[in-house]
């Protein structure tokens, strides 16, 4: 495997923050640990600005991830391939 880089957009960070703050995850990890993870991820990830509007996914809530992937590829030739996990 080659080099991998975690990319995020404002939209995907907002969703992750909201999901990690849900009380249903309290039984797995304390909120403080989840927020620490979120903060570390936010600092280490490559933030991709100006993600273009794209509507293509069966579930509209997933479009933000496709938009991010396409914007990341356009931004950097070093991000030549994208692997989607579903």
Strand content: under 5%
Order of strands across the biggest sheet?
Answer: 1-2
Distance between the termini: 19 Å
Q: Return the domain count.
A: 1
| Fraction of residues in H or I helices | 40-55%
- Rg over CA atoms, rounded to whole Å, is 14 Å
- The total strand number stands at 2
| Separate helix tally | 3
Counting helices, strands and paired strands, the structural category is mainly alpha
Largest sheet: 2 strands, parallel
Spell out the helices and strands N to C: EHHEH
Structure description:
With 86 residues, the chain is mainly alpha-helical. The chain has one domain. It has helices at 10-20, 31-44, 63-75, and strands at 7-8, 46-47. A two-stranded parallel sheet has the order 1-2. Helix 1 runs antiparallel to helix 2. The longest helix is centred in the middle third of the chain and has 14 residues, at 31-44.
Could you give a quick summary of the protein structure above?
The protein is mainly alpha-helical and 86 residues long. The chain has 3 helices and 2 strands; from the N terminus they run E-H-H-E-H.
Kindly list the characteristics that best describe this protein.
single chain, 86 residues, mainly alpha, two-stranded parallel sheet, 3 helices, 44% helix
Q: In terms of topology, how is this protein built?
A:
Blueprint (H helix, E strand, L loop, with lengths): L6 E2 L1 H11 L10 H14 L1 E2 L15 H13 L11
Parallel strand pairs: 1-2
Helix pairs in contact: 1-2
